[in-house]
Amino acid sequence: MSMATTTIRIDYAMLPNHFDRSRPNAVAEAIETALRDAGIKAEASDIFSHIKIELPTSQLTAACAALADLKLI
């Protein structure tokens, strides 16, 4: 059985100041860790112009709340 997946993209220019834009891999890792700490099975990665976050669509609401806490959305 396959699971629906959602992709969220966050442009580097939109990152709050508390994230170090010069270290995109560290930013992706911090976001992924925060989501996993919130119980969300997410994978975040550094893509050329943005952070890409993939997660099960069933966890989208929880992910949005966690990302709002991080001031990302």
Descriptive tags:
3-stranded antiparallel beta sheet, Ribosomal Protein S8, Chain: A, domain 1, globular, 33% helix, 3 strands
Which CATH architecture would you pick? Answer: 2-Layer Sandwich
CATH topology: Ribosomal Protein S8, Chain: A, domain 1
Radius of gyration: 12 Å
Q: Strand percentage, roughly?
A: 25-35%
Silhouette: globular
Poorly predicted runs: none
If strands are numbered along the chain, what order do they take across the biggest sheet?
1-3-2
Which structural class fits the helix and strand makeup? alpha+beta
SSE blueprint:
Elements: E1 5-11, H1 24-37, E2 43-47, E3 50-56, H2 60-69
Write structural notes for this entry.
This protein is an alpha+beta fold and 73 residues long. It has one domain (5-69): Ribosomal Protein S8, Chain: A, domain 1 (2-Layer Sandwich), CATH 3.30.1370. The protein has helices at residues 24-37, 60-69, and strands spanning 5-11, 43-47, 50-56. Strands 1-3-2 form a 3-stranded antiparallel beta sheet. The radius of gyration is 12 Å and the shape is globular.
